[in-house]
Fold these 2 entries.
Entry 1:
Amino acid sequence: MPSTAIEVRGVDKYFGRFQALDKLDLTVRTGQVAGFLGPNGSGKSTTIRVLLGLLRADAGSVGLLGGDPWRDAVTLHRRLAYVPGDVTLWPGLTGGQAIDLLGRLRGGLDSGRRRELLSRFELDPTKKARTYSKGNRQKVALVAALASDAELLILDEPTSGLDPLMEAVFTECVLEAKAQGRTVLLSSHILSEVEKLCDTVTIIRKGRSVESGTLDDLRHLTRSSVRATVAGDARALEGADGVHNLRIDGETVTLDVDNTRMDTVMRALTGLGIRSLVSNPPSLEELFMRHYGDEPAARGGDGSAAA
Amino acid sequence: MSALTGTGTLVRFVLRRDRVRLTVWTLALVGTVVGTIPALNDMFSTDAQRQARAAIMDTPTGVVFGGPGYGLDDYQLGPMVVNELTMSMLIALAVMSILHVVRHTRAEEESVRAELLRANVLGASAQMTAALVTVSLVNLLIGGLTTLTLVGNGLETADSVAYGLGLALAGISFGAIAAVCAQIVEHGRSAAGLAFLVIGVLFMSRVVGDMAEDGGNALSWLSPFAWAQQTRVFDDLRWWPLALYAAFIAVLFALTYALARRRDLGAGLVASRPGPAGAGGLLNSAFALHLHQQRGAVLAWTAATFLFALSFGSLATEVEAMLEQNPDLVAIVGGSAEDATKGFLGVMGGYVLMAASAYAAISVLRTRTEETSGRAELTLSTAVGRVRWFGSALLVSALSSALIVAMGGLGMGLSAAAALEDSSWTWTMLGAALAQLPVALLFAALTALLVGAAPRLVPLVWAWLGYSLLVSMFGALLGLDEWLLNMSAFELLPKLPNEEFDAASVTVALGAVLVVGAVALAGFRRRDLATV
């Protein structure tokens, strides 16, 4: 088995004159859970469709499980399972029928695991597909994918319709798949989801990969935003190492903190006498604005103490 | 807030959304009237010619698409318009009204757009009412313009008004039928199907009634297809049959609202039940999936065609009876009574082929819906190759059209054999139908070619199908040139049983089907899949 499950190099894809992918690179090693992160419309689904041989790359090379997905689609598809971001099912089939059909078309389904997944995802397989909500349609595709023996799972924003409880079930399932030695490509626009599950992350924006590596490599990208009410004078924090975007409004102070400097900053805050404290991980959008200079970020700048 | 709040806004919205669609329908239908009148004047310019034409309208085929035959004794322009045009106009109005009403009621509910609207300040009955108001408006417009056209050509004003009003009221009646159907079933497609079935039965009941008796018997009077001509316009005008439309419409509208009040948004009167928790053993391939998706439609189309064929086949005795009553007719239709029967059944067999061709195109077009909905993406992400997926869809379409053609031929043959007490008709008609099958397959292949290679050009298939239907039904009447006639798909192959089977042209047609199908598959394999 090759050590690289997915190897995409310099792929361009045009839709008419619109360039959807721009020299995109993506590498996923066998047995890893790889996050594929980007805002809406950045080209994640297009990349996945190229990987599935549904779209043909205009330039660059695409390797999937050691083959060419455009040429060898059928043989490669026996070894992978795909969950689209927006699952549409056949209105005349029940969820259970759709699961069996997809499994059979792929070449087999573990009926024990199917039963177990149905109960874990609390999915009623006797309902007609048209009566399912978005989340339930997604569960159908997830159960079909996870109950297969596929060595590669390609999941396109698989949790976008799931409630938090089901998201937790999904997280467990992906970790189990990883423990079984399967490779997972998980696209998402939610940073925390990727942080929870993935060994490596590739960040894509406007069709280009802008960052990739292990989560530790990317740790510098992650800052938390902190909002606190303090008794003392918060100006003491000005210019402190790891503090960004400090804003002081009376007793209330908001700031972004590099996660690596969290400890020292918290000590400084504690010294000021904390009355209340809220800390949030940064949203992907904030991250993009900060690091890749979109217009809003250009306006706001990256200076500290911009109050 | 009343149940009708917002109806006015919705009416304007529907008219705006459908401005092109409704304009095209109006222009096409009124244009047919405007264009046919000079053609009629031209082709039948002397009394002798007109009376000869009247004699043809008195034949069985003439009665099917002509009507009860009022005014044939003195076949001037007025009676000519009524006998030559009415049935086609009514069928077209029925198609337009059914599609319009279903589109703005059940299909809208199905698409969740209705939910968005109903969450707004909108009465519960507003959408239904807007659909009925707009369908009435467009029918009245077409009827009114028809009246103006007739008056403009120097016909009596009162009769012209009665005729235009009759067409409009008939159209609204068909819309009302669709409205009731839309309350009963859960899907737009099945609502339209049910409405077309009802229309088909009503059409047949008029045909049978008009054939049995001059001026139509009670069976004919049961059908809204009859009343527009029962006013005896341009012959001996009477207004009261129009009141039948008014009563019919009032009852159906009331029924629609009563049914609508008894159900939830999006639900049918028959609630959908839970289905099987797993797929049966047969649902294990792309072919099985396509078949499963289409089985309802195939059964409906086959059953409808079979019933249509059965009823027309049984009219074979009427053909003989009419010829016995009126020996002059034999000269008009040419040859013997048997030739006349063959000719009649051959013409009716043409309609079986038209149905199968339309289904072939619709069926192949479903692959496009599968693709744009994202379902094809899911299927093709499994170990199903593109050629297998698209090819098995084409196979299902081809087999379905073959089934429709075969059952149409068989139905016509069986009932003709029973009516004429001669079993050889079964095989004659089955063979005649199957000999034309390549035409239906050609429509499947051409649709596949466009879906596979140039999805944006799919409307071209409809254009050719529409052209072929029009030319084959009206071409001779409009006096079109030979080459225009020959461009109709339905003129490609000899029409059995009156014409001889021609192995060469059938082979060429089948070869074309295979070549076009292969190019379609190659095109589909090479192109990007449509993304959602």
Entry 2:
Amino acid sequence: MKKGLFGFLLGMWILIILGGGIVVLILGPISITGFGDIDWFLSSVVKAIIALILVAVWILILSKLKNWIFKKEIQS
Amino acid sequence: MPELIISSVISCIVAFFAVYVSIPSLIKYLSKHNLAVKDMNKRENIMVVRPGGPSIILGILVSEATLYLFLQRTEILAIMITSLLAFLIGYVDDRKVMGGWFKPVALTVAAVPIILLGTYDSNLAFPLFGEVQIPVLYLGVIILMIPITGNTINSIDVLNGVASGFMTIAGFSLTIGLFVMQNYEIAIASMPLGFVALAFYKYHKIPSKIFPGDSGALAFGAMYGTIAIVGNAEIVAAIALLPAVINSFLFLSSVKRIVEHRQIKGKPVDHDEQFRLRATKDPSAPITLVRLILAGGPLTEKQVGHAIFKLALFSGSLAIITSFLMGIRF
């Protein structure tokens, strides 16, 4: 069980590093133009929506990882 | 540089001894006013006084004030004000039982001084990949960070010495991370957190003489979260906090709503005939970190605490590795 917990911690750490890569390489460069003064606001809204989706995906992956690592214990 | 060293040494001494010296008086006061709760993990009917929050916030405020005299950094004011507000929110919950939503919502208010004082950098830095500019989104990060760190530390305050011991390890890991990232002044401002937690651990470790209460746990968490924001070390701080994050995540993913532990009907953990902690088979009980640690068999309270500290040391090491990776770019 303790090994499972260390594995889960390591899995979370890797997900954070990879998530950072996605945020910097995909989310960061997003820029919406053509709407004048509200360009920055629209860009932020789009980034916020994508960030929320990424968080939801991250939580989903963690749930799957949790179920996979702790399957026996959670079933009991 | 000598001024930095002198100020850090003085603030750490002040942080440690303000807590260490004030707690015996606080224990006397709380005992006199019968502010005690039963220690549920002891066979005997042992009552432990709470909250220890007043001593914790005293240590934080006097040490950071001492540091402010030397460094004059607005970030230190943000740490002091946010920690104080979180302490007050926790103190209300210590004295009067509030709903599950009270602390998360109220703690968003505690984050406002960080924004008003302008003590943040809206570039979110990630290891290996660099920074991302999110000026509007970052305000949301600040507003969410303090409730998350505050409640995460509060949620791990389940056994004697665990919250303060965990905070000591996570606090020092964050400090080392800040030094690695060459953010020296904020690293020095974060050192009192580890020393306050260490001094409190002396009285909180098994068998506890005092519990931190919501006021103490929230003050710890808010100070930690504020340091992460003003030090631009959000990712490093989140990684050092991972065991507590796992605890909150497991709890929320099994309960599927924000509630206080006392509102949960199923017990995740009970005791065997030797009064060791044992994971229950109750399907309605939430999955928690302690329950998972106990899945392999019953353990004493001290053994479970040590298992949590080993996880904290592991995540603290990952946090320090991450701080080194901050300087590497693809």
